[in-house]
Structure formats: C-alpha cells, structure tokens
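Writing this down once: the sequence line spells out the residues, with the fold written below as integer tokens. This is how one looks:
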Amino acid sequence: MAHRLLSANRVNARIAFIFTLSLSCTYLFYNIIFYRGAVMTNQGYEGKLCPPRKSAGGKKLLGKLENCASLEASSAAQRGSSHLQRNTPAATGGQWTDGDSRNMSIAQKYGNKKLPTALIVGVKKGGTRAVLEFIRIHPDVRALGTEPHFFDRNYDRGLDWYRGLMPRTLDSQITLEKTPSYFVTREAPRRISRMSHETKLIVVVRNPVTRAISDYTQTLSKKPDIPSFEELAFTNRSLGLVDTSWNAIRIGMYILHLENWLQYFRLSQMHFVSGERLITDPAGEMGRVQDFLGLKRIITDKHFYFNRTKGFPCLKKPESSSQPRCLGKSKGRTHVQIEQDTIEQLQEFYRPFNIKFYETVGQDFKWD
C-alpha cells in the first residue's frame, strides 16, 4: 500500500513539474514577442498603433490621433529633408529635375506656416520680381508669389493673418516674401522689427533715373492720358526744379529711405542687389544673395540664359517643362523715349543722394 502511494506521488510531482515548465516557456515566449514589438521604429510599429482616420470620429481617439499625426509628420519631415538634399541641382549636375516640384509638394503636405525670416522690401521697378523668381528655385527657400502688403496696407489684420498667407515650409527652409513698397513706407521698418529684430532684408536698387522712367512707362501703359514725363518730373524745368513729391522721383532718393531703416536694423542685416548687374551677371548677384541668406550656392550660371527679345535673363527650362521660365510680359518692356537734357538734369539732381548712398552701404553702383 505504501509503495502504491509513493508511486502516485512521484507521478503527480512529474505532472506538476511539466505543467510548471510549460507555463514558464509560454511566459518567456510572450515576453520575447512583447520586447520585440517595443523596440520597433516609429515608421513601423508606431504607425500600426494609429487607428485608421475613417474610424476616428470619437472624442476618445483625439489624443491618440494627434500623437499619431505628430509621429507621421516628424517621420515625413525627415524623409522630406533627405529627399530635398538628393534633388538639388548640385546633386543633379546643375540642372533642375522634377524633384523641384516634388520638394514643393513635400513642404506643402508636411510643413508649417511660419512668419518670414527674410523680406524683399524694395524697390519698385528695381528688379524685385526677378530676384524673387530666381531665389525661389532654391530648394531651401519657399516664397509667397503675390505681394501681401502687410506692413504698409494690411497691418491691422494682425500677424496671424499674415502668417496664414505664407507657404508651408520644412524646418530647414526659409520663408520669404516681397513687397517693394515697404522700402518707402515710413512705418514699415518699425513694424517689421516688432515682428523680429533678426529679419534679413533684401533691397534691389537701380539707377534712379532709369527706375523713374520705368515706373512712368508702367503707369502710362495703364493710364494713357497722364501728363508727359517731363511735366510730372519738374515743377520748373527751365530752372531745373525737380518735383520730389512725385512718387516716381521720390522712390529713387534711396539714402533718405535707408536712414529710416537704419534706426531699426543693422546695416549687416540688409543686402543691396544691383538691378544692373542682375541683368548682366544674374548668377553672380544671386550667388551673393544666397550667401547673405546663409544658403548653399546652388543657383549658378547653369540656370540662366539671356533672352535677347526681352533684354533680360531667363531661367532655363526644367526637365518637366517644354518652356523656359521668363518673367511676365510687363517685364522688360520698352521704355518711353525721354529727352537727353531731361535725363542729364535728373542725373545731376540725384548725384548727391547717390554719393551718400554709396558711402553708407559701402558699394559703388556706378550710376553717375
């Protein structure tokens, strides 16, 4: 009897040992599976944890969805930054490819709207549109195509409205806008400095006499009945008295406007582009613009060709287009003919303003 009981106890002990061993193996197996899942990357496992958007109608899912969106945006931004580097002209032999448009779509989808860190503030008829169109082919620049006139006409709408106008940008990109009238708006530098003391300012300047004639030519194309250039430019032509209240003349008195800007910004925060050199050497001028903005020199002479019909440089066509990228019909239009005596009188008028401007910015634009 005792022998039978001993034998039964041994069997029970073996069964208990096997059962315990089985539980231990099962526990170890699930721990291994759990640990493997915990160390998966955000692109893999974390993405699977996000519920499908169509089923995310309940408020309980809001926090989880926001976390998922953050993870997706972060991952996409990293992929976008890598993609941008692979598709620059430097990486494609100096030629633009379809990567240009893909870069833009990446920023539009995953970027954020930010206040601009750089502004093209002037001057009208100096070449600001050309600078904008040339610089915006850089993969690290996203620019607003239209002129928002925030700091001169729409300031009461507030910075949130202004930010809402901006294109979406990735963290590695610069947000840029252009409004040439800022340079001659007295309140503009103070308002811009309130937005940011570190804003970089680009000013495109041109021989003030040529600029005034170009300004008049544009106005004449819209209002053919306006007085002649000479009538508007002088209060008394025989005495050589120039009408400085006429906007076309006043804009070209660059030093007077610059003195206002220097009350709020350091000269080192301002870069002056020569409108003349922008025509004869666009790659050189844009190289200096890229340096000023802290960008790699990607826009080079390989991107330009001279359009003899317009008398202006154009961008060579991207691979995705059958046409080159030139400025609009209003750019490069033929100026009205002005008497040489009038031109010389205006050159004499502007000379002291030009000389002081050269001395202040440390650059001789050779307009005299």
